[in-house]
Amino acid sequence: MAGTTLLDIKGVQTYYGNIRALNGVDVTVKQGEIVALIGANGAGKSTLMMTIFGAPRARAGTITFAGIDITQLPTHEIARMRIAQSPEGRRIFPRMTVMENLQMGASLDNLQHYDEDVEKVFTLFPRLKERIAQRGGTLSGGEQQMLSIGRALMARPKLLLLDEPSLGLAPLVVKQIFDAIRELNRTQGLTVFLVEQNAFGALKLATRGYVMVNGNVTMSGTGKELLADPDVRAAYLEGGHH
Amino acid sequence: MAVTASPERDIVATPMQRATREALYAGAIALGLFVLFIGLRTDQNISNELILVQRWLLLAVVVVLTMAGRFLYVAYGQPFLANQQIVDVATGLLPESVATRFFRLPYFIAAIATVAVLVFLAGSLDGLLGPGLAGYARFLRALAIIYALASVLFYFRTFIHAHFSALGITALALYPVIVVLVLALYGGSVAAGFQGSLKWVDNFGIQILIYVMLAWGLNIVVGLAGLLDLGYVAFYAVGAYAYALLGTQYGLSFWILLPAAGAMAAFWGVLLGFPVLRLRGDYLAIVTLAFGEIIRLVLINWREVTNGSAGISGIPKVTFFGLMTFNVSDPNYIAKVFDIATSSAYYKIFLYYLILGLCLLTAFVTIRLRRMPVGRAWEALREDEIACRSLGINTTTTKLTAFATGAMFGGFAGSFFAARQGFVSPESFIFLESAIILAIVVLGGMGSLVGIAVAAMVMIGGTEVLRELDFLKQVFGPDFTPELYRMLLFGMAMVIVMLWKPRGFVGSREPTAFLKESRAVSGSFTKEGHG
């Protein structure tokens, strides 16, 4: 299966009212890859992530998932194609317990593999198992991020979208989370598309990467190529490492 | 020089000084607040002109009372509360709590004795003390009974806390029986028992349970799905008019019309749901409020069908599942079937059990739904709509099912209401009703069935109790009608509860998902020694 295109974004334009946020974006994610999209604040990274989920909807261009055009599908139908998302700001359910949050993630799967999948999530993030009966809102930021990813995994996704998983987290926790993503990709062959401001970490993790500036994809290449690129280094890496 | 603090700083104000200062502040604030509300009153003189009546004495009394209250609280109340937190050096124990000091065996015995004496003298109180003092004596009797009951509850508090739901349901099921028995013993005959039970079963029992059911129904929409609905009374009206119209026009039985009324209300719930799908919070509240008013105005103005504000009367009574009726003229009237004395209390007691059954149905459905995918989706929707959608939940159908389910229970309650009153008019379905139902849900703690039931009991029961406080006429004069102050009671209760428990009586929510071998897990983790 490796090598077949899973997610294909072609010429996508998205608007907020009359303001164009995405300016004809082309991005491909192949089966089994980790693809990172990096860029500065307001470049349109999260907008692209949301556009894949149909909110806001793309005004031009097409989004194809596993050969099916999902551009016009409602958000919940897109999720049912087995695309799972850990959205920006994590968006866990604060008054529900860790267990209930995970259960919500499995509702797509009709709870068929619930027990098995819960165990998998707990193996990946043992911290969640300790917090099992705690309300989501009382977790630390890193635990909430783990829960958000865990909840997405409960849907048995073919493609996992991660929006800034490192946002506001301590470096050690970021490392834990990136390790978990790498582990998922290596052992289960999970395809991951992640948006990051932490360009260094994301490009080290990714098979391929895209750089986004002002609603346009300006550069693409393997993670290593981008890490070595002087422009990328100047814009996103050197500045962040002082 | 810099090290020595100025001598003034070392002197901490004594409670008395602080109390005096704060009392002055409180007095100033009270004066500013009330000078126009209480100090001045507009009135009409003989030639119908508007004049200002000055009430400076009343204003002074209010201000002085405020100051005295603040002074006593700061000087004695606060130090007392602070002392309650300090452990005794010698014994290592916290001081006795206020509750244990308040509920003591000697006091309990004294209360029981007072009740016994006053009940024994009940008939001759007026003669002995005169009507004025007899009123106070009856009030004292009521207080003693409440104290004795509260002592018993306090003594068994851990047991009650552990088995609250079961005890509550048992108490509710036995309530009419106990009322009839007590009143029969008191009045000396069974007939007197039934006759006297009317007020207790109807005004207190049925009235409270209707609100419990309405609040539990609204709880599905507001508490679980988080959709703020200010027009819930519309579904109550739809249910009531559905039964009233179909029952009077086609003579259909309550048992057919109950589900029909529920279905009709649910249909209207979906109709309301469609236009408001994209709205949340304040915007949703305003549209639902308008919806409630629209239904009421249609009921007033569509005279050909609804008979306008004159309402519909002669609504048929509920039958005992078609086997017996509660109409004296019918051949199968319940008293004729059992060959007992005629009384209107049988119908009220039957209605009590009917509404109790409907309440339990609502609770059962709510509890079951919360553990099912749709119920979990409601709660997730309340927490985060966007996250819901990205988890593949269809928020459209989720919202519509919440509206429909909540409306259905409103419809059931409505048709019950019509059957109980025998008369419906648009006046019963004003916005205030929606507000009261919502207030009960919020006070009880959104989502908590037990909390909501307690809130309904306190709020509706409390306003009914106000009607009983006739002795207050002795204090405030014969024009004083305590019922008029029920909204004040509502407001005060809301302020107090929101200060004391901002999430309502029962603020915590019961989780619905558990790990199967949870014990084994916690055991293994304690062995690992985390942290």
From TrEMBL, chain A:
Q: Does the keyword Oxidoreductase apply?
A: no
Q: Can you tell which superkingdom this protein's organism belongs to?
A: Bacteria
Q: Where is the ABC transporter domain?
A: 7-239
What's the short name of a Pfam family annotated to this entry?
ABC_tran
Keyword terms of this UniProt record: Amino-acid transport, ATP-binding, Nucleotide-binding, Transport
Q: Check the record and name the PROSITE patterns matching this protein.
A: ABC_TRANSPORTER_1, ABC_TRANSPORTER_2
Output the GO biological process annotations, alphabetical, semicolon-separated.
L-amino acid transport
Question: What GO molecular function annotation could you give as one example from this UniProt entry?
Answer: ATP hydrolysis activity
**CDD domains attached to this UniProt entry:** ABC_TM1139_LivF_branched (cd03224)
- Indicate the family of this protein: Belongs to the ABC transporter superfamily.
Q: What's this protein's name?
A: ABC transporter ATP-binding protein
TrEMBL record, chain B:
Main location per UniProt?
Answer: membrane
Tell me the compartments it is located in: Cell membrane
Kindly name one Pfam family recorded for this protein. BPD_transp_2
InterPro entries named in the record: ABC_transp_permease, LivHM_N, LivM-like
A Gene Ontology molecular function term for this protein is: branched-chain amino acid transmembrane transporter activity
Q: Among its keywords, does the record have Coiled coil?
A: no
The High-affinity branched-chain amino acid transport system permease LivHM N-terminal domain is annotated at: 21-113
Protein topology in the membrane: Multi-pass membrane protein
Residue ranges spanning the membrane: these are: 23-40, 52-73, 105-128, 140-160, 166-187, 208-238, 250-271, 283-302, 349-369, 400-418, 430-463
Instruction: Give start-end of the signal peptide.
Output: none
Look up keyword Lyase and say if it applies.
Answer: no
Annotated keywords: Cell membrane, Membrane, Transmembrane, Transmembrane helix
Q: Name one GO cellular component term.
A: plasma membrane
State what protein this is by name. Branched-chain amino acid ABC transporter permease
Upper taxonomic lineage:
Bacteria, Pseudomonadati, Pseudomonadota, Alphaproteobacteria, Hyphomicrobiales
